[in-house]
Write a structure and sequence with these properties.
The protein is of the alpha/beta class and 296 residues long. Helix content is 29%, strand content 27%.
Length: 296
């Protein structure tokens, strides 16, 4: 089974979300929310992420998470993640209840392929304060792909995690998960990177990008946005319409893609210093905005 087959299957089975030029989307991926231990890469940026996502919620954006939101290779269950980052999940609950949440599973949270697993672990949680089961992400569904389809132009934007172009992280994810739990998580604490990850292995990153580029070209330059490699990508109009939103585990910053008013932009949120020495979280425009129609 080739990467071309896997990407095509994800596209054909994708959830279709209609949109127009009044729609607003924020795309993040690869948050790798963990248990707040030394191995939790998300912990360093959790305040940046929470502030950014809160601003997007208040401004009426729809949140699309393109896989690897939860780190379920290093962690055996969802419970320690909820305990460590409960404010984030309660914010996701607000997006869900507002009908503004679309979730995609990646290789690190591939267990979310199973609707029964999602229902058991994410729909509710035990609150020790009340002694009762409280609702969390009740009714949430995860998808392998999402297609944003413009109501007027019918332009499509295919969203996926991107591990479809990575054989071992798609079909061999259980073996890689075992290696991470047994070997790489303990070593990560002392600073040794996991070579199975394309984000930390440049040769694997190049292979994944090359395969996705070929698929995009073979499908009429279909506008495609992935994560997985953690490397942001924003092509110019006329180039191959292959985008990457980066990740939320960059050193001291997170990157994402905004779609608003018929345009697309690559953005970064980071901590900056004011003249008086206090710190603030700011949004930085990296690329764009470019008209979506320029990639049609």
């Amino acid at each position: 089974m080739s990467s071309n087959f896997r990407l095509t299957r994800a596209y054909k089975n994708a959830k279709v979300v209609p949109f127009d030029d009044t729609s607003k989307f924020i795309l993040f991926s690869d948050c790798h929310r963990g248990d707040n231990s030394f191995a939790d890469d998300f912990a360093n940026n959790r305040n940046i992420y929470f502030h950014a996502l809160q601003q997007y919620f208040l401004k009426g954006f729809t949140y699309c998470e393109l896989g690897d939101g939860d780190e379920l290779w290093e962690n055996r269950s969802f419970s320690p993640l909820l305990l460590a980052h409960k404010n984030v999940y309660l914010l996701l609950k607000q997006f869900l209840e507002a009908g503004r949440l679309h979730m995609i599973w990646g290789n690190h949270d591939m267990v979310y392929k199973d609707p029964n697993y999602v229902k058991k672990h994410l729909h509710s949680y035990f609150d020790p304060k009340t002694g009762e089961q409280e609702l969390l992400l009740k009714g949430i569904t995860y998808h392998e792909g999402v297609v944003l389809k413009h109501r007027e132009t019918e332009q499509e934007i295919f969203l996926a995690h991107g591990h479809q172009a990575d054989f071992m992280n798609y079909h061999g994810w259980r073996f890689n998960r075992f290696l991470v739990r047994a070997l790489w998580k303990p070593l990560q604490v002392v600073g040794i990177s996991d070579p199975t990850s394309p984000a930390k292995n440049f040769k694997e990153l190049i292979k994944v990008e090359r395969r996705v580029k070929k698929w995009v070209a073979d499908n009429g330059n279909l506008m495609t946005i992935i994560g997985h490699t953690h490397r942001p990508r924003f092509p110019e109009p006329g180039e191959l319409a292959f985008f990457n939103d980066g990740s939320c585990v960059h050193p001291r910053s997170i990157t994402g893609i905004e779609i608003e008013k018929g345009t697309i932009s690559l953005i970064k949120w980071q901590i900056s210093t004011k003249d008086d020495g206090t710190l603030q979280i700011v949004r930085v425009l990296l690329e764009g905005p470019q008209r979506l129609s320029d990639y049609h």
